[in-house]
Amino acid sequence: MARKIYNRIAVLRTEASMTRKALAEKVGVNPQTIGFLERGDYNPSLELALNVAAVFKLPVELMFSFRPFPSVAETLLGRGDPS
Amino acid sequence: MTYKGDPIAEKLDKLAEATGMPRLQRRYASGNPIRFRLLPLVLLAIAAAGLALQIAEPLSLGYLVILTVWSVTILVFTLGPLGQRAGRRWDEREAAVVRKGHFMGLLIAFGAAVLGSLAFGMGKTGAMIRLWDIWTPQSGLDWLAVNFFLLVLEANVAVIAASAATPEPLEDEEE
C-alpha cells in the first residue's frame, strides 16, 4: 500500500483563481484527476508532481509531502510546521 | 431532466427516463465512468451457468447464454472505468486503472485457462485408460462456449478490479 501524499494544490489553485479544468489542461491530465489529487485519492507520478509544481512556480517539496500541511490559519499564526 | 409542457411528450419522456438509458447516457457524457460492482458478478454467474448448461447438454443453448452475456459485458466494459471516452485520451491515473484492471482480469482468465486445459488433458488421458470421464470440448460450439467464457471472465474481473481502483466521483463536477 503506497503512503498517502498530501499536497497544497487546492489552496494554491484557489489563490490563483484557477479552475480544475484549467490546471488539468496545463499539466495534461483530466480535471477529475486534479480533483482526486486535491482530495488525496490519488498519488501523482513524479512527472505530474513536477508539472503541477512548475505551474505554480514552486519547488515540488513545498507542494507535496508525506506529512499533512498546516492549515492557512495555523501558518498565519506562525504555528505551522515550517517544513 | 424531464420534459415539461406537452402532456404526451412528458409521459414519453418519463417512460424513457424509467428505462434508465437517458441516465446512463448523461453519465457517459459527463466522462465519469460507472463503478460497477454487482452487475459483473451477476454476469459471471450467468456465464458460469451457461457453461454448465453446455457441459451438461452439449446440444443445448449454453453457448448462446454465454454469447448473450458477452454482449452485455461489452456495454458494461464501455460504461465502466475501462471504456475509452470519445475524444479523450487516458491520463496517467486512468491508464494505471486500466492496467490494474486488465492485470487482474488476465491473471484470473489465465489461471482458469491453465486449470481448464489441465482438466481437459486429464480428462482425455483418464478416458483413454478408462479411469474417469471428465468433460472435454467436442464440438465447435463447445469450444465457442469455453472461449467466450474466458473472454467474459477476463472482461468482468477487469471491470470489477478497475471499479475498485477508481475513487468516488467528485461532488463539484462543474468546476
Describe this structure in words.
The complex is a heterodimer of chains A (83) and B (175). With 83 residues, chain A is mainly alpha-helical. Helices cover 52% and strands 5% of the residues of chain A. In chain A, strands 1-2 form a two-stranded antiparallel ribbon. The longest helix of chain A has 10 residues, at 46-55. Chain A is globular, with a radius of gyration of 13 Å. Chain B has six helices and no strands. Classes of the chains: A mainly alpha (83), B mainly alpha (175). The interface between A and B is medium-sized, with 18 and 13 residues.
Q: State the distance separating the first and last CA atoms of chain A.
A: 25 Å
SSE string of chain B: HHHHHH
What is the count of DSSP helices of chain A, taking H or I runs of 4+ residues?
Answer: 6
Instruction: Report the uncertain regions of chain B.
Output: none
Biggest interchain interface, per-side counts: A-B, 18 and 13 residues
